[in-house]
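User: My advisor asked me to double-check a structure prediction for 3-isopropylmalate dehydratase before group meeting. I don't want to rely on an old file, so could you generate it fresh from this sequence?
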Amino acid sequence: MARIERRAEVELDAPTLIEGLPGLGLVGKLATDHLVDQFEMTYYASVHCEGLPGVGVYREGDRIVRPAVRLYADAERNLLALQSDVPVSASAAPGFAECITGWIDAQDALPVYCSGYPGQSEAEPRPVFGVATTDDAADRLAELDVAAPSENGAVAGPTGALLERAAETGVDGIGLIVESDPQFPDPEAAAALIEQGIGPLAGVDADVSELRDRAEEIRAQKEQLARRMQQAATDESSQAQPLRMFQ
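Assistant: Sure, here is a fresh prediction for 3-isopropylmalate dehydratase from the sequence you gave:
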């Protein structure tokens, strides 16, 4: 049975939720993991949506097993983070999106969905643009001067399913898309995502120097997950692509 089970009591008021599902360049996951660690966020809830793999996750030095998809919370910053250690399959994505979106709406949270856009630009910082599921959310992006898309495109995979579900049900939602390495984990793109999008939207000041300073180490640590993502079908990996690629 689909459910999100609370594990701790944290006082939140219309929080911002950052989505960190594995996808192109692992940009959303890298950014979310970084925020969870840096802000020492509290394990807030376990996610048990239909179609998610039954995987128990444990950490170095910690004997407690937790589900692969979890929510973390920070009362001081009024922040939620959706952390996942497994990809969400294409077949599970619609049900997962329905499960998560219903819960987000009930919390009166603003979801910020994160995706990589394949590119090899050496521009610094990496280009980031934003899309929205409602007019109110689009106005928020405009107020913060987050760039609009420069061409037609589509977000695939579970992140795309989350955006589509929010748009369908009228839930305010924002998609942040950053140019990222199409083959390998991209800490620089994750840092740009935080600096240009997540930070302003959530009203938080996060130090991203570690993402940049430890880029090679982080890439090596995340290489195995990235290979699993490459082995999955294209529509199982969250990524944004120009719309012409589908025509």
